[in-house]
Amino acid sequence: MKDRNEILTAMFPPFSSVRSADVANWVASDGYQFLGDSAVYYTGNIDLSGYSQARMTFATFETQYQDPGIYSNTNSTGEAAGNATKIEIIEMITDVPFDTAQLTTLIADMGTTVPGMLSTSQDFAQIIYGRYSLHVQNTTLGLPGYMQLISDGGFGSKEPTAASKLYCYKIVKTTGLTVYEAGETLSFPACRIGLSGRVFSEEELPYIMRLKRSYELQQLLN
To answer: How far apart are CA 16 and CA 48, in angstroms?
Structure first.
């Protein structure tokens, strides 16, 4: 197999949920799972087994983020904002998987730190792509429940990887009143992340060391 340019794509579906009671979780739907009463997450993967079997490495040069829709949280009538004062989102593509305990910690740490930073258990190199964003209520535009993007930033390493699979995550957390309303809705759009880079053959020693590092990181997380 020859070296070549490639675009790897992670796709996340849209989400729409209605609370069935004031103490209920957001309903797991559209492939999303709930984690606690205030967060949902989606997992997927990018298969690189064909490249890994050919002993090739993928290096990310540029990333693209496409999210054309609206994040909203409305009350039970759909005519006004819901109880969420802010929505926090993390999208990640990594070369090692995250378990439920790690995702729970990630959600608790939102707004203060992200995976791969100091005080976290992840290595920066394993976070190929990372993006954090914050949306808050905007009730001045006449669009009920509209959550406006006010801050976003990246935290990915773009580190080359020889892994056979990349793991894709979208985590969405709502923060607001401790008691939510039955019939309250949360919705957000589909999004796409692209990793533009090159698949290439490395010298044997760097390639073996990269595989060794990936294996060691997975053992630490298991």
So the answer is: 31
Give the separation between CA 199 and CA 79, rounded to whole angstroms: 50
Rounded distance between C-alpha atoms, residue 13 and residue 170, angstroms: 10
Single-letter amino acid code for the residue at 117: M
Where are any strands of DSSP class E within the chain? 4-12, 15-18, 33-34, 39-47, 57-66, 71-74, 84-94, 127-137, 146-154, 165-176, 185-188, 191-200
Q: What is the DSSP string of 49-113?
A: HHHHHTT-EEEEEEEEEE--S-EEEE-TTSSSB-SEEEEEEEEEEESS---HHHHHHHHHHTTT-
What stretches of 83-192 show up as alpha helix (H) in DSSP? 100-109
The CA distances from residue 121 to 8, 114, 115, in Å, are 26, 10, 7
Render pLDDT for 21-44 as a digit per residue (tens, 0 to 9). Answer: 766 678 778 899 988 778 999 999
Query: If phi over 0 gives left and psi between -120 and 50 gives alpha, with beta otherwise, what is residue 95?
Result: alpha
pLDDT tens column, 123-136: 898 999 999 999 99
**Residue-range domain boundaries for the chain:** 4-221
Distance from the Cα of residue 194 to its chain's centroid: 13
**Which 8-state DSSP code applies to residue 180?**
-
Q: In which order are the strands placed within the sheet that holds 57-66?
A: 4-12, 191-200, 57-66
